Amino acid sequence: MIITLSPSKGQDFSEPAKTKKHTTPDALEDSQLLIKELRKIKTEELQALMDISENIAKLNVGRVKDFKTPFTISNAKQAIFAFKGDVYSGINIENFSADDLAYAQKHLRMLSGLYGCLRPLDLIQPYRLEMKTKLKNPRGDNLYQFWDERITDSLNKELVKQQEPVLVNLASNEYFKSVKPKLLKGRLLNINFKETKDGKTRIVAIYAKRARGMMTDYILRNRIENPEDMKKFKEGGYKYSKADSDDKQWTFIRPQPQK
Questions:
Q1: Which domain holds residue 36?
Q2: Closest by alpha carbon to 10, among 77, 64, 79, 83?
């Protein structure tokens, strides 16, 4: 199985990762094309393009200016250790063993507006470039056009190596739109997490993000190869709901926690 996740706007580069093992993003040359376009954009323009504050715009103009290759553990950090936020709070990466990391490297892919399809140990430098950003580039008017079939092709290369050619989608809609489902060389399984309150069941974004991380952690730690074994997932009080699921989409439900 292959798991897809979204990246995180929150990133931490203040401390080195717990391992020195690292890889280089496969699509780094593509990333450099995007950096070239971003370097043409002034702070005010970037603020409007990304709908961010002036301070964050200034920060990211500086990040783009500082971007340089080759990536090393001195100027970059492994993606799985750099990303912070609701999704990644559910992945207990600091306690992963060397074997856990090796397994994650083969089975987890993070979809990125700047880097395309990232492995956990791929080095990245600080950035902010959401997949929905309408950044004009040599391949089109936005990042979906820029990446075109490239992310799908990268996932397919991994799917054919798997014991079970199944892609477990735990990414947000924004990021998974960069994947072309009809071209995938395997089964696509979308996962939803819902909360029940006052007799109504719905997706609550903050809880769903955390649950995606918990499910990722569960799959990796338990070395799950058969999707059916995912139905045993009960972290955080979630349970598989057969009534709300079908062969393309599985739903896990729990009572909504009290704030």
A1: 2-255
A2: 83
